[in-house]
Amino acid sequence: MKEIAAEEIQDFNTSLDRLWARRDLVVLATGALICLRSIHRRAALIGALPRLRYAVISAEDYVLGTAEEVIRDAVRDAARQPGVRVVVLYLSCLDILVRPDFADIERSLTEETGCMIRCFFRGPLAKADALSHEPAEELLAYLPPEEGEVVASSALPPPMSDAAGVVDVLRGKGTAQVLVTPSGCRTALARMDLMPDRHDVYALIPHAEDYVFGMEETAAAEVAELAAEGRHRAIRLITSPVPAFMAMETAPILDAAEMHGCRGGCSPTDGFHDGVFGVAEFLQHLVEEAATRWKEGGQTVLVLGYSPLLFGDAAALGEASAALADLGCSMVTAGSDALTERPAAVWLVSAAGTRAAAWLNTRYGIPVVRTLPLGREGRAAWRAELMGALGRANDAPSSVDVLCAQRTAHPERILIVADPLAAAAIVRLLTLHGWQEVHCAAYAWSSETAELYRSAADGELLIFQTAAELQPAWDAADIVIADPILLPAMGEKRILPLPSGLLSGRDGAGAGSGVLGAQFAEVLQGFLDNSKIMKC
């Protein structure tokens, strides 16, 4: 067992770097979302984003045998990019496990596309494979001389994976999280989606034979050793693509933890889904489990959908908690605090909490507050909705009273790309200040996340999975409020930066981050000031 800590990429002489040194070569990454995330990060750091493409493959594709056709289509698409002469398939662990016809992919697609297509075997399963595989130097040596350069837009950044999302949201004291994964997946987590303050995340160290005979025995032994140290009250497994594909049995592993006095649990993530969906699944399980032993409720407000990567700086929650305390209420956050009593109300802060909030409302009639207190007007609206949910009279002025009577009408068309709850808060404020052309969009990696966004949306929402689906709205906008990481894929635009951990990892989280954070407040206030808004 190895404890995982946040780290930065230090080595820029890897196989990937050597492949990308060739300017007419595109690396086509395959595998699960968790595999693609760190590859995109490295490409961004070395300026190789135009020479990176990835295949969006589902877990079902690998199970049903359709992954090879998805890969072939992605190769054809990569080969069509201007300036491409070589496409290197950067194969994942699952590709090595399921064994598509690599030789035929190289031969037939080289002939079909006119580009040289080569497969590169990487990762721990490539090293454990019975067959030998050529290193990057040998692969490059057999290619024709470099000619020209790839000229293409970048691919959309792959969002945070479900496994990383659960790790980020689960912060209960005394709980150890164990990532069951090959080494590449844990490296992706450490280098992008693990906050620096985390000290309770561990990784299983599998043996080569575990990929053939199963991981259960190794996992049980290592979990038992961790539990025997006596430092944790609970151990939760976080699964990833390989063990999910191998249908790893978690019961004997959890039994090993419980034999040493640790409560065992498992988050059945598969690495193919994004963090929004992974956290949504986890939170629903969490509240359903907690509800079986709840005390009758007092004046607790339950926060659903919060984590630093999904929402931003916790300081905003601290301010809300102080406001609740003035009302005689306490605030608990799902994933961090013990859920001991039935809440009087739920405060939904991101789409990841939508499913759990709906279940609590349907099952127990618990009202759901959906407003985020953005700006003076937003704080008034949040308090009004909260007071209504708690069955109390609202003694605060309405948002209309807060605004000046005179407002300037603004013709600019604004596009907001963000979580639907965050977008709704921004729309409310901009509309009150005179903007009428404000439109919202959200990036969904899968159909499951798209459904969560639809449930969370308050009004019209463009849900996109590809750059082409977002492009018309992006081009039509005069101003975009979004994570700047989208710019290489979507094109230059006047942007009000709203970084998100979902896309930018821990670079988009931390102090002052998020829609309620100090950084965006400064950006937004500067925008309003420059637009000559008449303020009270």
Structure explained in plain terms:
There is one protein chain. By secondary structure, this protein is α/β, with parallel strands linked by helices. Helix content is 43%, strand content 14%. The chain has 25 helices and 18 strands. The strands form 4 sheets. Strands 1-7-6-8-9 form a 5-stranded mixed sheet, sandwiched between helices. The chain starts with a strand and ends in a 6-residue tail after the last helix.
In short:
With 536 residues, this protein is α/β, with parallel strands linked by helices. The chain has 25 helices and 18 strands. A five-stranded mixed sheet has the order 1-7-6-8-9, sandwiched between helices. A five-stranded parallel sheet has the order 16-15-14-17-18, with helices on both faces.
Per-chain topology:
Layout: E1 2-3, H1 15-20, E2 25-29, H2 33-46, E3 52-54, H3 59-64, H4 67-79, E4 86-91, H5 93-98, H6 102-113, E5 116-121, H7 124-128, H8 136-141, H9 162-169, E6 175-180, H10 183-193, E7 201-203, H11 210-213, H12 216-228, E8 234-239, H13 241-245, H14 251-258, E9 263-267, H15 275-291, E10 300-304, H16 315-326, E11 330-333, E12 345-348, H17 354-364, E13 368-369, H18 375-389, H19 399-402, E14 414-417, H20 420-432, E15 438-443, H21 447-456, E16 462-464, H22 467-476, E17 479-482, H23 487-490, E18 495-497, H24 501-504, H25 518-530
Parallel strand pairs: 2-3, 2-4, 4-5, 6-7, 6-8, 8-9, 10-11, 10-12, 12-13, 14-15, 14-17, 15-16, 17-18
Antiparallel strand pairs: 1-7
Task: Sum up the structure in keywords.
536 residues; alpha/beta
Q: On the 0-100 scale, what is the average pLDDT?
A: 91
Number of strands: 18
Which structural class do you get from the secondary structure elements? alpha/beta
Oligomer: single chain
Q: Sketch the major β-sheet.
A: 5 strands, mixed
Helix content: 40-55%
Q: Distance between the terminal alpha carbons, to the nearest Å? A: 58 Å
Query: Could you tell me the radius of gyration in angstroms?
Result: 24 Å
- What amount of the residues lies in strands? 5-15%
Strand order of the largest sheet: 1-7-6-8-9
**Poorly predicted residue ranges:** 399-406
Shape: globular
Count of DSSP H/I helices: 25
